[in-house]
Amino acid sequence: MAALGWLTPRRRSATARSVLAGEASAEAARKSSPSEVSDQEPEFPVLGDEKAAAFFDLDNTVMQGAALFHFGRGLYKRKFFETRDLAKFAWQQAWFRLAGVEDPEHMQDARDSALSIVKGHRVSELMSIGEEIYDEYMAERIWPGTRALAQAHLDAGQRVWLVTAAPVEIAQVIARRLGLTGALGTVAESVDGVYTGKLVGEPLHGPAKAEAVRALAAAEGLDLARCAAYSDSHNDIPMLSLVGHPYAINPDTKLRRHARTLDWRLRDYRTGRKAAKVGIPAAAGVGAVAGGTAAAIALHRRRR
User: Fold this and answer.
1) How far, in Å, CA of 103 to CA of 106, rounded?
2) pTM to 2 decimals?
3) Positions marked active-site
C-alpha cells in the first residue's frame, strides 16, 4: 500500500499566493458570467426608462430620399402644378438620391415652391392628401433597419419623435403611420385653417433641430444624456451632440468621419459598396438617374 501513497491527495494549508490566485480566478469567472456582462453592458434602449426618448431625422435616415420631394410627386399627380415645372426638381431629387446628402439651395427652392403651391389650400385638405401620398410613394421607402431601431425604443416604453425640415403636416402623417409618438417639423403659417404661403420662423434644419429637441426635452421632463438621436447628415451634428446616445444612420462622408472620431455608433442599411458612398443600390447605376428623374417631383415655381 505504501507504493500507492502517491495516489492519495495530500492536505496542504493554502499559502497567501494560492489564496490570491483562487480569488482572482473566481473574480474572473464572475465577470465572464452572463449576469456580470449584463451589468457592464446594459441593454439599450433601457426598458421602462421614462426619462429617455429617441429622436429620428427623416430624410435618408428613416426613409430613402426626401419626404418633401415624394410629397411633391403626389401633388403633381393631383395637378397642383404643371409639367413644365418638373424638370429642375426632377434633377434635384435624382441628385439627392445619388449624393445621399442635402443641398441647402435645392432644399430652400423646394420649400419656397411648396409654400407657393399650398398657399390658399386648407390644412385639412393637405393632411388628407398626405395620407394618400404616404401609401403611394413613401411606405415602400421606409428603411426596415431604422424602423426596427424606432420600434425597439417603443417596445422599451420610450417616446419616439421624428425631427425633420419637412412640413410638420407630412412628418405627422409619417409618424402616425409608423406608430411613433409624434413629429417636429417646419411649420407653415395658416389663418383659419388656410395656408398663407409663409413660414412660422425658419425651416427646422441644422441648429434649429437641436433647439427643438432641447425645448421638447425640457417640456417633457426628459434627460438628454439618456436619450438617443439618429441621423444621416452632418447638418444634424448639433442634434446628435445633444444626446447621450448618438447614432449615424446611412451617414454622409462628413458625418461618418465625425462619428468615427467621437466613437459614435454607425448603422448603414444601404446595400452594396457603392450604396455606402452614394446612398442608392449599387446595381441601379445610371438607371437611378433616369428613374429618379422620371419619378421625381417639381416643387418649384419659376420666378417671373
Assistant:
1) 5
2) 0.71
3) 57, 59
